[in-house]
Each structure stands twice: as structure tokens, then as C-alpha cells.
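For the sake of clarity, the format in which proteins appear in this thesis is described at this point. The record quoted next illustrates the convention:

___
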Amino acid sequence: MKKLDLKPVRLNGQVDSLAPNLSRRSFFMAAGAAGVSAATLSLGSSRARAQSTDWTQPGNNNHVLELQASSDFPTGEVTLDYYGHCALKFTAPSGATLIVDPWRDDPSGAWGLWFKSKFPETLVDITLSTHTHFDHDAIDRPQSTMVLDRMVGNFEFADIKITGFADKHACIAPGWYQWTDALKEFGVEGCPPNNIGHMDMVVYVIETGGIRTLIWGDNRPDPGEAFWQAIGKIDVLTLPVDGSEHILSYEQGNAIVDRLKPKVVIPTHYLNESTTYTLSTLQSADEWVKSQKSFQMLDSPSLSLAAAELASMNQEFMYFGSNVQST
């Protein structure tokens, strides 16, 4: 059989129309003998595609090589850029960058449309994900040299130290929308110790510029005494509290703030008019923020923090609102 004699066909696993009584198995054997891949033939006229798209990203690791070769890093401010939902980009004093929890829509379609666009292909050195839920794990979208997906333990690079603590996702919805009921519909358990794997969580402490930031993710409100002892002193705390109380209730969020006593609190996981549809069932965090003793309604998606300035702060809420970075 010649290559030219083979044409892409739709195979149904029974008898193919290429030739009388030619089975699927014998068809692929003949195709292999002719040097044509089975994947190409199965796809018909469409092209074969790799599952990962990371290899198509522009750029390279030159910036990482430069940082790797350095041993003396400057002191200075840490910049936080907000990309909506729980996605925050950190820029260390050295210029090293990382982004946490880039978002996407649920690829299965089961949870509907949450986001108005794809996550921007922003350039960073490191991408972090706290857990595998769709609104936290678009780790292929940033143009990133390194990906730390649910990392537990310690990682150090340039003037950044990241510590991952394993814990569990919030499994009891405190608000009006009982999204945790969906787990029962699928016949799985959401709460530990027998929770399904996608309800596992990693909480990150990111240290740079003399500032320790705790990324709470969608973590449960009561992780246990050993967790609190391991976390230690926190300067900046991100918390998933919104008006619908989707992950944490106002009371739970306030209790965590009182326990950790951070200098700065940054709300996350709320309805953001720039990025998020109301189909998400989320609401803004305005009410929670305005109930606090001290808060700032930021007018930019970018925030610069210096360790010396934080020293005089006490549980200052800094709220990005609908201000987001788009590149």
C-alpha cells in the first residue's frame, strides 16, 4: 500500500469504508506499514495537538539565568499586581517575579462561565497553584519558566523563599449558595479525612523584601493548632471573603485575621466586574471591607509595600476592587 492511497477517514471501531471488511486494527497496521501515524488518521483533517501548550510560549529563561548567577540582591519594595479573583503577581526587590493561582473557566462546562476572558499570558519567572480547581490552576497561561503546582516544602530562588503547607479546602459552604452539595451529587466526600483529591489544598508563605505573605487560597477556616504554629508571624494575608460568603464567612475571615494579626489584609475570590461574571454566584467584598476598622479602597491594580512602612500598620485592609492588570 502506498502513502498516497491512504486518505483520512472517520473510524467507528467496526468496519471502515476505506476497503471492504477492513477492521480498525488491520487498518492501523496497514497505516503503520505505510509510515502514517494512527493519531493523524484518527483525527481526520484536523491536526494532531499536544496536551500541553507550554512549549509554544514565547521567550526563554534568560532572566532566570541572570538571577541564578547573582548572589547579592538589593533591598527595597515588593510590588503586588492584581489580576482578579485570587491571582496576584509578586515582584521582588531583585526583579524576580511569581504569580499565584491564575484562573480559567471549568473545561468540563459543568460550572458555567465564570470569567470574561482568558487569563493574560503575563511574563513571570515562577507560577504557583494552591489546588486543582479551575479558578486557581490555569498554570499554562502565564509565560513562566518554572511551575510549582501544589508544592509542599521549601523552595528558594534569588531573594524569594516559598514555603508550602499541605491542608484541606473549605468543605462546608457558609453562604447562601451551597456549592458543596455538588460533591454529594457526584457521590464523593468533600471533607477530610476521606475527601476527594481535588479538595486537597496548599497554603503558601512567600517571603521577599523582608515581608512574609500568606496565600490562604480556598483553605478551610479551622486547619488545627499545628498549622497555626507552623505558619508563624505574617505581615500580609490574602483571604477569600466575598459578599456571598462562598468560601469563608465574614465571621470566619475576621477570626483568621484576629488569630494571625497581619499588618495588611488583601481580600480575594470576589466578584470583580472587570474579570468575573455573575454566573460565578460571587459578590463583591465591599461590605466586608467597609466593616473593618481601617481600610483603603485602592485605585490601581498595583500595590507597592515596604517592610519599614508595614511596621506601623495593624490589620489594614487594602482592597483592589475591580482594578485588575490585563497584560
Observations:
- Confidence is low (pLDDT under 50) at residues 1-45.
- The helical segments are 24-33, 38-42, 62-68, 181-185, 225-231, 250-260, 286-290, 307-310.
- Residues 3-42 form one domain.
- The first strand starts at residue 78 and ends at 82.
